[in-house]
C-alpha cells in the first residue's frame, strides 16, 4: 500500500522547519563553537566568538533570527518511489509555499532577500521565493527533506576549480582559503566536493554541509577512506593558517571540514569549496503520511553561559560629538562601544548615492562627519525598534568608498570582515576609519539600537538609509587612519605563533 502525503503536511513542515532553524543553531555547532571559544588565545577572536554564543542563546530564547541575512533556502528531497500525493500543487509549489509562509510569519518575520531578474532590475520577490530544490527518487514510501537557509556572504566565498588529475586537492584548498577573507564569518564549516562534473562537485560540497560536526570523533577513530584522510589533514592545516574568528587572527578558523566525492572522468578532477558561516542553519525531517513533521526544541541548558570580558582597551565613543582628531588615536584591534546617531546604507543605497553625486544632485542625508553602517535589518515585530541587524560584507562597498569619503565628508564605516586594497587606500588618503561588527551576532547588535527611522530611499525596503540611535554597540577597529588593517596583521601574527608552537 502506497504512502499518501498531503500537500498541507509538506507545506506546514517546511514552514515550521524554516522558522525553527532561523533561531535555533544545531547543537553540534554550539558545542563546537564553545570548545573553540574556551581554548582561544587571541582576545579579539575570543570576544567575537563570545558575541556569537551570546547571540545564539538570545535568539533561542526570543525566537528571533540568528542573522539578519536569513538566507536563500535550499531543499534536498529524497522521495520514495512508493509515495503518492494528495493535493493540486506541484512538489516545488508545495515547498515554495512553505518557504513563503515561514518568511512572512508575523510572529517572526524573516528577511526577504531573493531578487528576480538577477542581471537586470533585481526586483525583490517579497517572500524569499523561489527556493532551490534538488530531487532524488529512492526506494521506499517516505519523503525525507533536508532544508538549509544559506547566507549570501558565505555563499559569495564559494570556490571552484577543474584541477588536473595529478594536482593536489590539499594544496589548492590551502591556497583558496586565505583568498576567501573573513566575509564567510569564520569559524564555521567548509564543505568540499570532489569529482563528477562541475555542477556535481558543487552539489556535493553543498550537501556535505548538512552533516553534523564530528571531526573530533573522526580523529579518535581514524580515517577509513581518502575523503576522511582529507578531512583530517585539511582541518589541521587550515587552522594553522591563523585566520581565526572573523578573520581577526586566532587558533580556530574551521570547526569542521566535510568532504564528499563522486566518480569522475579520467581527464578531470573537479573540486568545489562552499563555506558555512557562523549562522549555520539546517535541519531535516521525514514524512510518512501520518501528518506534518514535528521538530523537538532544544533545551536552553544546552547553551553555555558565556559573558563578554571587558578589557582595558575598550573605549566609549559618542558618535554625535566625535571628531577627526579623536579617531586618529584608534588602533587596529581596539574595541569600541558606539553611542549616538549612526546612518545605514548598503549596496543599493550606495549605488543610488554615487549616481546622484555624479549627476550633481543633493543626497537625502548629509554624511559629513558621520558613520555609516552596512546593514539590511530584519523587519521589527511586537515592541522591537528594529529586527536583527548584523553587518553585511563590507568589500561589496569598496568600489564606492573613495567617492563616498571624498565627496560627502563621511568619517567612518562599519561592516563585516576585511576591506580590499582600493578601499584601504581611500580610507588612508581621507584619514577615515573602518570598524568591524561581528557577523553572526545580529540579535545582540539589534538590542543596542534604541531607535530607528528611515531618512532616504524608503522604496528600497531593508536597503533604505536608516538613522539608528545606538547604545554600547560593540565594534573593533579594523582599518585605522593610517591604513593599517587588523585583518592583515592579526592572521600574520597568529600564523607565526601557531607555527612556533608546532615547531
CATH fold name of the largest domain: fumarase
Strand order in the sheet with the most strands: 14-15-16-17-19
Radius of gyration: 23 Å
Number of helices: 15
Total individual domains: 3
Query: Do you know the CATH architecture of the largest domain?
Result: Alpha-Beta Barrel
Protein described:
With 503 residues, this protein is an alpha/beta fold. It folds into three domains: 1-151 and 302-307, no CATH class; 152-278, 2-Layer Sandwich (60s Ribosomal Protein L30, Chain: A); 314-490, fumarase (Alpha-Beta Barrel). Helices cover 33% and strands 24% of the residues. It has a five-stranded mixed beta barrel. It has a four-stranded mixed β-sheet with strand order 6-2-7-12. Strands 8-11-9-10 form a four-stranded mixed β-sheet. Helix 2 (27-39) runs antiparallel to helix 3, helix 11 (347-358) crosses helix 12 (398-408) and helix 12 packs parallel to helix 13. It is globular and about 75 Å long. The model has no long low-confidence stretch (mean pLDDT 96).
Layout of helices and strands, plus pairs?
Elements (H helix, E strand, L loop, with lengths): L2 E4 H17 L3 H13 L3 H20 L9 E9 L2 E4 L4 H13 L11 E2 L6 E2 L7 E7 L4 E8 L1 H4 L3 E5 L5 H8 L11 E8 L2 H11 L6 H7 L4 H14 L14 E9 L6 E8 L5 E6 L26 E5 L5 H4 L7 E10 L2 H12 L12 E3 L24 H11 L3 E4 L5 H9 L3 E4 L5 H5 L2 E8 L8 E15 L6 H17 L1
Parallel strand pairs: 1-3, 2-6, 9-10, 13-14, 14-15, 15-16, 16-17
Antiparallel strand pairs: 2-7, 4-5, 7-12, 8-11, 9-11, 14-19, 17-19, 18-19
Helix pairs in contact: 1-4, 2-3, 6-9, 11-12, 12-13
